[in-house]
Amino acid sequence: MKNIDWKNLTFGYVKTDYNIRCYFKDGKWGPLEVSTSETIELHIAATCLHYGQEAFEGMKAYRGKDNKVRLFRWEENWLRLQRSADGILMQRVPKEIFEEGIRKAVELNQEYIPPYGTGGSLYLRPLLIGSGAKVGVSPADEYLFMIFVTPVGPYFKEGFKPVKMQLIRDFDRAAPQGTGSIKVGGNYAASLRAGQRAHKEGFATAIFADAKTKQYIDEAGPANFYGIRDGKYITPDSETILPSITNMSLRELAADMGLIVERRHVALEELATFEEAGACGTAAVISPIGMIQDRDTGAVHQYSKDGEAGPWSKKLYARLTGIQYGEVEDKFNWCTVLF
Question: pTM for the whole thing?
């Protein structure tokens, strides 16, 4: 195992030894290739550079209590990458290439998987880009699929502690019937200005109102939003929200633990009624929300008065991470043991 300060890992890039690549050329996918280089050679007219043909996934491998290494719901990541590829007319990555690639990427870099008990994990970034040259606006004829990995700590520096978020209306992350529901770089690029401004104003991230009406909650920065009230787990349903695999899992756990699950439009006015709130995604798992301030009105919605997450958020977090680290029964068969 590498000599790394595992307990103080941030959510950032750490160089590892190998990455995996596979090229689509002449109408077919080639073999998987192992590389030690951190760079790629790319044509100056590649469609990913000019027309946004780029999609990615985020997933994690965990070293468990039993020292076994687990992947969490990798097939859902593959399915989401398929939807992203379809959404911007890229070549789909076959399931067997995706699976072999992620297995190989973890195995070759296993010395970078944080030890059990440190709270860290090995983050996997599958990436699909249009590498073929086009000057006119059209899909590429060639594609590059690659996977790199890096050991990470918590996404928010606060870890599993409530954070402050800012509700905004003057920026949109994605348009209705656009690319909001697929995992492409353009959605993240569109969120950067709002996110940076929120940081400068003292918040962890921005929560976007829906782009069309500004009446409903959309994404919570780089994650899905949920609120808990009266024994219900409530999360927005929208054509501009990325379907989070973590949120999907939390909905199943919430129902299994006795909460009523509602996935629907969530009006901004409901922010004042929630007993707990959180943001969820692969990177953060759950980031409890301590308070939300409306940037336009100044209204403050307080969910934590003692600096701690709410009881349901704690239970959901413990159950989900317990499954990922092999601490509790995986009754849903979400984890794949690699070795």
Answer: 0.95
